[in-house]
Amino acid sequence: MKCRVCRGEAFVKLPAHNAAFCPEHFDAFFLRQVARAIKKYRMLPPGGRVVVALSGGKDSLVTALVLHRLGYQVEGLFVDLGILEGDFSPASRQACEEFCAAHGVPLRVYSLAAEFGRGIPDIARRYPRICALCGVTKRHVMNEYTLAVGADALATGHTLDDMAAALFANLLRWDLHYLAKGLPVLPAEEGFAKKIKPLALQAENEIRAFAALHEIRPVEAVCPYAAEAKFKRYKRVLNELEEKSPGLKRAFYEGYTQQAHRFKEETARPPLVTCAVCGLPATNSPCTFCRIWRDAT
Ligand code: SF4
Ligand code: ZN
Ligand code: ZN
Fold first, then answer.
1. For the CA of 141, the nearest ligand
2. Does the beta carbon of 199 sit less than 6 angstroms from any atom of ligand 1?
3. Residue 5 C-alpha to ligand 2 middle, in angstroms?
4. Ligand at shortest distance from the CA of 121
5. What is the ipTM of this complex?
6. Both 229 and 256 in a single domain?
7. What is the pLDDT of residues 39-92, one digit of tens each?
């Protein structure tokens, strides 16, 4: 297997692109692909300021590294959930700290314990659907932080596999609300920072190869509350199809991005009010975040 560019020994084979690359040319190829997606979907202005939501997993760390190398002003944000079981939060935090120190990326750690004197395990005793509340918590903190520092956008590490699997699941259910929101960019609105997914067109195998190439060491600990990964069976089906038709996943998702406006017009968003505590838009006041963490009633 030879590199498409230099004919040297290939390090990675990418059937979806009908190509193989040596380490150097794969690196250049990967950066170019992400740069193209950022431009195509108008994610960031050149040299723009971006907060990257870091979890300690490979996808978010790769997102931060690519944006940093493409010349954006990157700041990592890690939300410490205070989950000590299985060393989950401390190990995740350490993975982020080591990555940021190695690559010269500033890191902000937002600790629930430091802010509110408790973490996710304390809340889990009271609320059975802890992942939903954990999601609300992370999204709130990240949005509020991105607005507070005045960054151009908040980036998350969602991959092509995540986006295609969610699209597949939402299409099977004809869930118009989510079908309207599956784009790699959600524009800024009053009280909402712009949200971007720079790896939305990069497949898992490409991201894994890029992480290995740059010796990114993601956290290995698994959250004790994690149920079966979301959309796992949809990913499996898409991967089986991809094996027979390389490039199918990307064509499926990219095709959707051209059609997403059709769903938008069909979707009525619930009316928003302003949370009396944090001042951000929400469906109720106080918002769920302020009710849980600030004991607002
Ligand atoms: Fe939070 Fe659930 Fe993810 Fe654990 S598995 S980090 S509780 S969303
Ligand atoms: Zn090469
Ligand atoms: Zn609030």
1. 3
2. no
3. 5
4. 1
5. 0.97
6. yes
7. 999 999 999 999 999 999 999 999 999 999 999 999 999 999 999 999 999 999
